[in-house]
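thread: overnight batch results

M.L. [08:02]
morning all. the overnight job finished for the chain we discussed friday. pasting input first so we're all looking at the same thing
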Amino acid sequence: DFEDIKLSVKMLRETAPDIFSTTIAYPLPGTKFYEQVRDRMMFDSEWTIDWDYTAENKLLFHREKYSTTFYRWVVRWLHREWKSQKLKAKPGSNFQKLRNTAELLIVRLLVRFLAVVPVKPSIRFRPAEGR
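M.L. [08:03]
and the structure it wrote out:
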């Protein structure tokens, strides 16, 4: 939920880790999460997923509340927050710090906007046959 994301940002600011990475959950073959997603998905007729090779990340499915675009921008927001903390801690170009601050404000605003945009699911979920 958006409140959880804001808590993650707060923790990132407070801890200021030396190294940071985040991603969107992605079902990988051989994992329980993969099996759960595979067994519950019913695909639109427009496209199907090649479960052996998904380089285009087509499995980034729409959730009930937020779109895939929202989650991608949240990842950018987290990275920009981390970079902002790193720039504050080191001496350097004021232009670089100003540019990062401007980018951070834009990303924050975009994420807040995307959080309230209605989502039209492209993939519907239902129990797998026989379950």
